UniProtKB/TrEMBL annotation:
UniProt superkingdom: Bacteria
Name assigned to this protein: Photosystem I reaction center subunit III
Species name: Chlorogloeopsis fritschii PCC 6912
Similarity annotation: Belongs to the PsaF family.
Span of the signal peptide: 1-23
Length: 159
């Protein structure tokens, strides 16, 4: 009975909530209307590398200085920003995870310090292949309690 009441209350709150309003951007103007941007276009040298981009930028929004800005007030712009961010985070995680797994693998072998300097290439390539799936491996290790160290394993300075 409590669950049904909670479900009904949730549905009621969901449909009675006021929809969000998008704030209108009053500081940015279309670049073709910006005096500073038009001045930049007039002063730019006439070449393929300046004329084409400036014509494309004229469709964007510009600030007071005449430089184009990307306001993430539309979903398409947010997706355009989210894709490079996700690619960067995946790549950075891949690099970190492959190095981490290589260091953990050589720690179990003899002459670990030597293998930090002189890299065991076949082992490292195997670590890199496994690091392609680092998000799944990180979730697995987090759920298993292997990703983070326990409090008693962390050394505390005596100072």
């Amino acid at each position: 009975m409590k669950r049904i009441f909670a479900l009904i209350l949730t549905i009621f709150i969901w449909f009675s909530a006021v929809s969000t309003a998008l704030a209108e951007n009053t500081t940015l103007v279309p670049c073709y209307k910006s005096a500073a941007f038009v001045e930049r276009m007039k002063n730019a040298p006439d070449s393929y590398y300046t004329t084409k981009p400036l014509k494309a930028y004229s469709q964007l929004l510009c600030g007071d200085d005449g430089l184009p800005r990307i306001a993430l007030d539309r979903l398409s712009f947010a997706v355009d920003a989210a894709i490079p961010i996700a690619i960067f985070l995946y790549t950075a995680g891949f690099i970190g995870w492959s190095g981490r797994s290589y260091l953990q693998a050589i720690k179990k072998q003899e002459k670990a310090e030597e293998k930090e300097v002189f890299i065991d290439v076949p082992l490292f390539i195997g670590c890199m292949v496994m690091a392609l799936f680092w998000p799944a491996a990180a979730i697995k290790e987090l759920l298993a309690g292997e990703l983070v160290a326990k409090d008693e394993e962390i050394p505390i300075s005596v100072r």
